[in-house]
Each structure stands twice: as structure tokens, then as C-alpha cells.
Amino acid sequence: MTVPDIRHWMTPGATPASESEDPLHDLRWNSDLRAKLALTYATISSSVFALALAAVLALPVPAADAAGPQAPALGARKLQPAPRIKARLPLARLFTPLRLEGSILKWGEPRVGTPARVTYAFAEGPVSRPDARNCREMQGLDRLVKASGETAQAIRAEAAAAFRMWSEVSGLVFEEIADTDAANILLGAQAMPRGYAFTNVDFARQDAPGLMEAGGSDGRGLNLPITAKGEGARTAPVAARIAPITRSAICLNPGHDWKIGFDGNLAAYDLRYTFAHEIGHAIGLDHHLKGLSIMHFKYSEIFQGLQPADISGVQWLYGLPQR
After folding, report:
1. First to last CA, the chain
2. pLDDT-based confidence at 252, cuts 50/70/90?
3. How far is Cα 233 from Cα 237, in angstroms, rounded to an integer?
4. Which domains does the chain carry?
5. Contact present, 96 and 300 (Cβ < 8 Å)
6. Pairing, β 137-139 against β 185-190
7. Which of 240, 243, 206, 216 lies closest to 109, judged by CA?
8. pTM of the entire structure?
């Protein structure tokens, strides 16, 4: 088979000069060939792309699964509602529920998204709970008066405001009562000062469906890493049993410097911010380690209110406000 001279095909009627007659022959011919080949390749590629695009556009748009959101037609601008969060989705990137012994903890009905009514009281004198992991020995919040320079009434008002932060965005309803023994959450000062602030959480251990027994106690603290032994739900999906919280205690270190409001001095902690963080533990939220969150274990004065991660967490546990 004779291979045609591609130079004649590229330049009809042209008679190439011999290499001896034209020393620039190879340079000119190669340059001309590359240019024309590139043009030909571009033309072919454009045609192939056009055919492929036409074929794709001619394909029918499949109907969406009846169980899921409708897929918009090609070119449609109508936005579809986002799917609702299901309990089995891995929510650790949004927030971190408090999870102990394989169960997620919350007040009220042991089912996520359900509201709850929770009472709280302020310790008036010594309180001893030897079985608690944190806040074993507590005293009245008036011990914080000297450390903060604020009145006992002002300190209690900051705690009440912190409770409202959580109730205003969720199905939680908090009520202050005087009976410290009957209160679901007890607030006070540490009798044996350590750290900054801590929370102890008691919950009902569910050993079998429908069977509950008292037991289980865990503590969390501000400005300290996770204290549970690998029980946190930071990386695990949240499909788990729900165990009811039976009682919580919040205790602040009276030897630490406290204040009301932000002033840039991170050596003294804002009382409302601290109470809000510890209340988060008391209602079933664990430390959040990434992004802005009042449940982050490090104190900061970047923001004063709940962040989207905090709101997502409390609403996942207790639903939307009922009021």
C-alpha cells in the first residue's frame, strides 16, 4: 500500500522542494502541517462536542422518587424545600449530643424532637452528692459575690437569662422553684474549688426496652477537654437509644474571676455565657470542637448568644418553641 504524501494533501498542487534545494524545507513544512492539523482537530472536536451535547439534551428527565423531593426540570429555577433531618443522620458536624453508654441524653420523653419542662433552683447552703462525678460538694451562689463584685440577685438574673437563651429557640420550658431537692437542675458554687465551671448529669440507664433503672453520672466542664471516656458522639452517627436525664447540677468556682458582660479580659468569665454553656450540658449537649458555638470548650468573647450549631442541637433534641 502506497502512503500518499500528506504534504500534497495539505497543499494541493504544490511540489515540495528537495531538502538539498531548500534547507528550510523541514521547518516550513512541519510548521504548516502542525497549524493545519490543529485546525482540523479543533473542527472535529467542536462537531463531536455539539453532537454529544445534543444527545444529552435529548435525554428525558427521570421522575423523582415519590419518597424524596422532586428533581427540578432542566432550566427550572424553583427551589425545593430541604429534607428534614432524620435521627440516623451523622450530625456530629453540626452539633454534638451528649451520648453516654450508647444512649443520647435528654429531658422528658425519650424521643428526639419532643418538648420538655425542666425546673431549676439555686443552692442556698451546703449540698452533698458523693456519687456525683462533678459538683459533689456545693454551696450557695452567694460565694460568687466576692469574686464578681456583683450582687447575688444580679448573678441569679444572669443565670435566668441564660436559661431563656435556650428556651426561646426550642421546645424547652424552664421554671425556677425554691425546692432544691425537687429541682431538676441545681445551680451553686463549688465547695472544693477547681477548674472554672462544671456540670454533672444523672440519667436513667435503659437496659432493655421499657425497663429503666436509676444510675449513670457524667460531668462536663468549661475550658476543659471532654471528660468522658470516649463516650462523646463527635464522630458517631446519632442513631441510638434515648435515655432520660434525671437530674443535673451546675457549679462554678468561687475562686475564679467572674463578671457580667464582655470587656476583652479573658481571665474573667462572663457569667451569662458560662451559665449558658453549662446549661447546654445539663440539657444534653456535649462540647462542640469546631466552629463557633457556645458549647465550645474554650471560653471566648467573640459572640454572646447561641450560634447556629447550638440552636440546631437543642431543636433536634426538643423541637421548635411551643409558644
Report:
1. 90
2. very high
3. 7
4. 1-13+23-83 (no CATH), 99-318 (3.40.390.10)
5. no
6. antiparallel
7. 243
8. 0.66
